[in-house]
Amino acid sequence: MADYDIIVIGSGPGGYIAAIRAAQLGFKTAIVEREHLAGICSNWGCIPTKALLRSAEILHYGQHAKDYGLTLEGSFKADLEAIVKRSRGIATRMNNGVQFLMKKNKVDVIWGEAKLTKSGTIAVAPTKKPAMQPQTPPPKNAKGEGTYTADHIIVATGARPRALPGLEPDGKLIWTYFESMVPAKMPKSLLVMGSGAIGIEFASFYRTMGVEVTVVEVLPQVVPVEDAEIGAFARKAFEKQGMKILTGAKVTKVEKGADSVTAHIEDEKGGKQTITADRMISAVGVVGNIENLGLETLGVKTDRGCIVIDDLCRTNVKGVYAIGDVAGPPMLAHKAEHEAVICVEAIKGLHPHPMDKLMIPGCTYCHPQIASVGLTEAKAKAAGHEIKVGRFNFVANGKAVALGEDSGMAKTIFDAKTGKLLGAHLVGPEVTELIQGFVVAMNLETTEEELMHTIFPHPTLSEVMKESVLDAYGKVLNA
Ligand SMILES: Cc1cc2nc3c(=O)[nH]c(=O)nc-3n(C[C@H](O)[C@H](O)[C@H](O)COP(=O)(O)OP(=O)(O)OC[C@H]3O[C@@H](n4cnc5c(N)ncnc54)[C@H](O)[C@@H]3O)c2cc1C
Prior knowledge:
Layout: E1 4-9, H1 13-24, E2 29-33, H2 39-44, H3 46-63, H4 80-104, E3 108-111, E4 113-118, E5 121-125, E6 146-155, E7 159-161, E8 174-175, H5 177-180, E9 189-193, H6 197-208, E10 212-216, H7 228-240, E11 244-246, E12 249-256, E13 261-267, E14 272-277, E15 279-282, E16 286-288, H8 295-298, E17 302-303, E18 306-307, E19 320-322, H9 333-348, E20 362-364, E21 369-374, H10 377-382, E22 387-393, H11 398-403, E23 409-415, E24 421-428, H12 431-443, H13 448-453, H14 463-472
Parallel strand pairs: 1-2, 1-6, 2-3, 6-19, 8-15, 9-10, 9-15, 10-11
Antiparallel strand pairs: 4-5, 5-6, 7-16, 12-13, 13-14, 17-18, 20-21, 21-24, 22-23, 23-24
Bound molecules: flavin-adenine dinucleotide.
Keywords: FAD, Flavoprotein, NAD, Oxidoreductase, Redox-active center
EC number: 1.8.1.4
Catalytic activity: N(6)-[(R)-dihydrolipoyl]-L-lysyl-[protein] + NAD(+) = N(6)-[(R)-lipoyl]-L-lysyl-[protein] + NADH + H(+)
């Protein structure tokens, strides 16, 4: 008999949720972690970045206090050390929270680096080199190195920063998200390579903190996965804040000085320039942690740095599953969590709905925020839909005006024949909270009629959502 029904490797949002759901379903469960309970998301990703961005947001409000009829007397300025300390404290709190949840759900924690050695068996060795010091100490009651067996093994080992050849982060002058989150002192100038969610959130944080920020993006728009119109809107807002943005441009070479970097940049027309900045952030994506896991020994299929799975998170090898970042894009915490539940419920034979990637929302917590779900206008057209598009600007939304946050827009895309909501795209205040309304609607296969029939409370930011639907059908009221 195996030691466990289910062993989960990795305790990020994918792994720890899988372990909790497994325990809830009566499986004897263990989770292996080599570095920090709660994974990248809580320790070096979603949560500590939002803590930093919150400090930046409050700084911004303080700087604009006059706009609200308020006078701040005395000094109101950023204390970088305290900001970073707050962010790290929040990461620790999340980390402790997962430790509590493992205990509460009677999930055994095994501390160390796991490797599949043969079918249903893993070997756990002491952690060799954590990605970032300091490593969180293991929980007191954690088991240690040894061989463990299980009927089902779920790989949830996450991802790490991608490094481009010749432009590799060195932790000093060229930062990954790890160093970007714990600066010892503010650089005066910063070059951010890559304008996906991670790059643009750091660009937003540092710009609000007063740093001269240049963003270099190889694709034609910033936040390239978003709808082109939303990307263009966001770009204008970033530029208004003083960010310098180069799109269709790539960093080809970096020369390191004593305390600065000079980046050689080439645009798509062959134009060349150099930019010198105190620090550079490499934010060119992440790659799955698939190495040293024994995947080859068992013959588990991988593709472009990720484990290949089916829509119930099964790999090609019986008894081995993969979820979260290591199982491919989109590399988002809520995707990892949802896969975790699907995976475990399928093992239990509960017939969960398979993952529908079109229903995964994406949120970027820059200023202004960006959020979306479903197809962009370009993708809807490419998929052969005849479409109706609605738009509404926050400038005509009473709540946004009252908040002093009236820059932004909502865009909705419908199938012209059926009225099915195909996609929703938002940029502006609190849109990362608003998007869930459209996510629920899409999951319920909503049509324009139902959305127009829905009563939205007044005054709320959410009214832009309804107005954008009305606009798609020529019935907009407040514009
Ligand atoms: C700066 C930043 C900001 C982000 N912001 C957001 C956001 O706002 N919203 C969002 O949805 N996503 C965000 N993400 C992405 C999010 O963090 C990931 O999608 C999420 O953490 C993936 O969860 P996971 O469980 O797959 O893996 P991870 O969270 O990466 O966890 C994997 C765990 O496995 C452990 N591990 C790896 N190999 C082994 C081994 N051999 N043995 C034992 N343990 C091992 C690792 O130590 C790690 O703790 C952000 C990421 C970054 C870097």
